[in-house]
Design brief:
Length: 533
């Protein structure tokens, strides 16, 4: 057992301190949900048609219905075109009514929207329809690029400056960007601020659960990770209710993110640093201070001889992302896990951001999507403990991919059935997300754990970037997006079988692998304990 494992046995492996810490770490994930999926509501589309007020100069007494009838062409389904209008002419209204206009053009003076009273979105304010409609998908992809940058910068930073520092920095950045986006004057400023906010999301997601996990016994690491992320669906459900009540996107943005001021203040005072990380960095005095604090909360005492015998190992050399590629077994883990992260993100965000395309009320559908995530996350723990990380990871990826493909065989006039199958796909994607954080963190030793999580998360964010762009391919054929969302996870599920099992394997701090005859890796910790992987 590692020296920190001995400390945990003395101060409590999962006592009041750890339980209180994990409960507190659930809070930031709620705001992560607001930021990641919030554009489903702030970017809502409404029925619209071209602004044709030019005809009012010729006939100021025209009713709205008559104005539309004279200036907007009808499509083959008998409905008015959304992005076409009759070309303005220098005729009076009587002549226009008598002869009509045969020449059409795109919207010249923007669009008019049929919105409920008081409702607005970035679509209506920034006129993101017709030729500009692709900016919605572009903004989502650029936001996901922010998550990629965060995975590249903030996650490895935690191995150098500490988990606590990065979590607090990320919360501050999310607060500033979440509030600032409500004052965006145009879509381009909005995209830039959302990108900066996306950077902070990776810092929160990849570090908050690690603090709780590293303070707990290895057998509780999966539990800490899953509980920390279970508040994400709670955020989705809360957001659905708040968005239903507040239809103005700017006010909604402020209501969702202003409470972060209180959260940041509380976390500054109560959030501890990972003592396990402090020991690997040679910061023995700070680690002892945090350990004594934890012991006091748990009602335990730390024997003085145990503190004195703490071995500060590996303090002379910090791990880097390059260490992953220098070691053969870590290199293999990184490549396979990167594929799994990519597929999971692609499937999850492909389904989540397309929530308005399933034919039912968007608020109800999003609430159901959030509701189904709760059992998907909480139910993961007994399954990964019984079947192991590897088999469960492969199973949910294959099941989720099949669900995405299943939506293609359901007729469009059965939206309820399509939604049910999509919900099953979302269930599987969520379960994959839950286990992937546990599995990834357990595969890497403490000195490079966040570098490994950051590398894999970065590849996952590429999937997140591509997810909204894949939806643009439906102009060629409506089945293409779901084909992509379905086939890639199925392939990734097969690759997952190449990974070792980590269930009930103690977390490693510093490792030296060597290959055994059966091809598994033997991990030698500095305390001399060996574990087969």
């Amino acid at each position: 057992m590692s020296s920190f494992g001995q400390i945990l046995k003395e101060i409590g492996e999962f006592g009041l301190f750890q339980k209180r810490l994990v409960a507190a770490l659930c809070i930031p994930t709620i705001f992560v949900a607001f930021d990641e999926i919030g554009q489903v509501f702030t970017g809502m589309n409404f029925p619209h048609h071209c602004n044709t007020d030019w005809i009012l100069d010729r006939g100021p007494n025209l009713t709205v219905e008559r104005q539309i009838n004279l200036t907007i062409p009808v499509n083959k389904d008998g409905k008015y075109e959304s992005c076409e209008m009759f070309k303005p002419v220098d005729w009076d209204s009587e002549k226009i009514e008598a002869f009509g206009i045969n020449t059409t053009t795109g919207c010249i003076n923007g669009s008019d929207y049929e919105t409920p009273k008081g409702a607005s979105s970035i679509v209506t304010e920034f006129d993101l329809v017709c030729a500009r409609s692709s900016l919605i998908e572009v903004s989502q992809s650029i936001y996901m690029a922010g998550l990629l940058v965060g995975a590249l910068v903030l996650v490895p930073m935690a191995d150098r400056f500490g988990r606590r520092f990065v979590v607090l920095l990320s919360l501050l950045q999310l607060l500033l960007c979440g509030v600032a986006v409500a004052f965006s004057p145009n879509i381009y400023v909005y995209i830039v601020i959302k990108f900066l906010g996306g950077i902070s999301i990776s810092g929160i997601l990849a570090n908050s659960f690690v603090i709780g996990g590293e303070w707990s016994d290895s057998s509780k690491f999966a539990l800490c990770t899953i509980i920390c992320h279970t508040s994400f669906p709670l955020g989705l459900m809360m957001m659905s209710g708040v968005a239903y009540l507040i239809r103005n996107w700017r006010i909604l943005q402020l209501v969702l993110f202003c409470p972060l001021v209180l959260v940041l203040g509380i976390f500054y005072w109560i959030l501890p640093e990972s003592a396990r990380w402090l020991l690997t960095q040679g910061k023995k005095e700070e680690a002892i201070k945090e350990i004594c604090r934890a012991a006091r909360v748990n009602g335990r005492k730390v024997p003085e001889d145990l503190i004195e015998r703490l071995a500060v190992v590996g303090s002379s050399k910090r791990g880097t992302m390059l260490d992953i590629f220098r070691t053969s077994y870590l290199r293999k883990h990184a490549l396979v896990m990167s594929t799994i992260w990519f597929a999971t993100n692609l499937m999850y965000y492909g389904l989540s951001l397309g929530v308005g395309n399933f034919g039912l009320d968007i608020y109800l559908t999003q609430f159901i999507f959030g509701l189904v995530e709760v059992p998907a996350r909480l139910g993961t723990l007994p399954f990964i403990q019984h079947f192991g990380r590897r088999m469960f990871q492969a199973g949910v990826l294959i099941f989720g991919g099949c669900a995405c493909l299943g939506t293609l065989v359901i007729p469009k006039d059965l939206p309820q059935v399509v939604t049910v199958i999509a919900v099953l796909g979302k269930f599987a994607a969520t379960a994959s997300f839950s286990v992937i954080y546990v599995y990834t963190a357990e595969l890497y030793p403490t000195v490079i754990r966040q570098n490994g999580v950051g590398l894999n998360s970065m590849c996952g964010r590429v999937g997140g970037i591509l997810a909204p762009l894949v939806r643009l391919l439906d102009v060629y054929h409506h089945t293409i997006p779901m084909l992509i969302y379905g086939t890639i996870p199925i392939a990734a599920g097969g690759f997952a079988l190449l990974l070792p099992e980590t269930c009930n394997v103690e977390l490693q701090d510093h490792t030296e692998p060597r290959e055994l005859e059966n091809g598994t890796a033997e991990i030698l910790s500095k305390s001399g304990v060996c574990t087969k992987m």
